[in-house]
Amino acid sequence: MPHQTILIIGSSGFLGRQITSLCELQASIIKTHCRNPLYPDSIRYDFFNDAIEKLLDIQKIDIVIFAGMVETSPLDAVQTSMQRFAKACRDKRVIYLSSDGVFDGQKGFYAEQDAPNSQTLYGQNLAACEKIIAKHCQNFCIVRPSYIYGFSNGKLDDRLTKTIETLKAGEKVTLFDDMFKSPYGVKQIANAVIALARSALTGIIHVAGQRMSVYEFHRQAMSALMVDTTNLKSCKMPTAKGYLRDTSLDSSMWQNITNSKLENIQDILAAKDAA
Questions:
Q1: How many folded domains does the chain comprise?
Q2: Which of 76, 87, 88, 153 is deepest in the core (most CB within 10 A)?
Q3: Which residues pair with 178 in a beta bridge?
Q4: CATH number for the domain that contains residue 83
């Protein structure tokens, strides 16, 4: 992307900072943050209160990568703000980071053509944002990962960090062996996002790892990080409503397009560098 400028919304986040690190090697980028600037040249942008038009025009933006975490806010606020944002970006290439949270977890191994049916506010916000982006932005790509893990700029994700700290403290960690996700490395997902930003692909695409239980993921990850798993235990999910049993994703479309094979947990966690 030698002659294009990329705007990254949420460049201080876990995935956002990995995208930023890799993008800096390939393109001119504009970084943004809401509360916590990670870079001295990052521009403050409040998704809920700021208009994006001036930033798009002044910086002559070609591509917008939306990696901001805004979907935990009230549905009305998210939809109103995303409508404003998407309309402003209608003539840009837009990459929107969604997730497996758009699904209800009843079916599992969801493909791109499966209809979202989330039962959570987070998932409903994601699905609403997807629809808004698709409606107002002709040149768009919606990327859905599942669990994102690994080292982003040398920092391990919070999920695995918490498990390590608990186990090293001699305490027990109990995880569901019948809740399924499709975990994949932050660097691998960031590289996919950048490649998709450079491509002409439009629509929805899943970028995720192989289907596995939450327990099995942590077991393999702890083994890869050489952490004793004696106190890592498995259990069954409660039958109470509200648990998403299987939101695993079918990422065969992405693998076929890129002619790539999924990397395993051992190799992903062996790489701590950003580039």
A1: 1
A2: 88
A3: none
A4: 3.40.50.720
